[in-house]
Amino acid sequence: MHRRLRITDWILLTMLALALGFAPSRALAAERLEFTLATLDGHAFVKLSDFPNRQVLINVWGTECPPCVKETPLLNAQSQIYKNVQFLGIGTDDRISSLLFANRYRVRYPQLQAPNNPAGLLRELGDLHGALPFTVVLDAQHRICARRMGEVDARWIATAVHDCTAETEADGSRGPS
């Protein structure tokens, strides 16, 4: 009976995670997000507002996270396909480890350093459990319109970008091209 309860709990938690993390949904966050983070090399700061009227995909990752490692080549490729979407990575480990990781996998989109205690930023993005990887897509007004806990795939990215574009156009908040 105890074993059965654990299996049932695991199934329910998995279903909940998939439901919360996979499906893009309208108005996950009505407020615009804003943050400023240092680049991994420490030479600059990047603000979310540096990308006005542009969708942004944010992927939060860790160097010791197997799904993070696995999805990195896909995110690199997708960042080249979706030129109209700004991809940003946020490394949660120390700066040197994160920089070595980004260099090893030749990440081609900006990589930022999470704050020393990334829990607040993760909560702001909708990751209440601190699980990695965690990916969000922001609409052109920088409101969360899709999020996923766990590894992303090309289909999820395509759906999230499409749905976030459609939502922005539907609510009339599309900025100038």
Molecular structure report:
- By secondary structure, this protein is α/β, with parallel strands linked by helices.
- The chain has one domain (24-170): Glutaredoxin (3-Layer(aba) Sandwich).
- It has five helices and seven strands.
- The protein has helices at residues 2-22, 66-81, 95-104, 119-125, 154-170; strands at 36-38, 45-47, 55-61, 85-91, 111-113, 134-138, 144-149.
- The strands form two sheets. A five-stranded mixed sheet has the order 5-4-3-6-7. A two-stranded antiparallel sheet has the order 1-2.
- The chain is globular and about 45 Å long.
- The termini are far apart.
- Residues 1-27 have low confidence and may be disordered.
Offer a concise description of the structure.
By secondary structure, the chain is an alpha/beta fold. Helices cover 40% and strands 19% of the residues.
Shape: globular
- Average predicted confidence as pLDDT: 84
The CATH topology is Glutaredoxin
CATH architectural type: 3-Layer(aba) Sandwich
What percentage of the residues does DSSP assign to strands (E)? 15-25%
Identify low-pLDDT runs.
1-27
Strand-helix topology:
Layout: H1 2-22, E1 36-38, E2 45-47, E3 55-61, H2 66-81, E4 85-91, H3 95-104, E5 111-113, H4 119-125, E6 134-138, E7 144-149, H5 154-170
Parallel strand pairs: 3-4, 4-5
Antiparallel strand pairs: 1-2, 3-6, 6-7
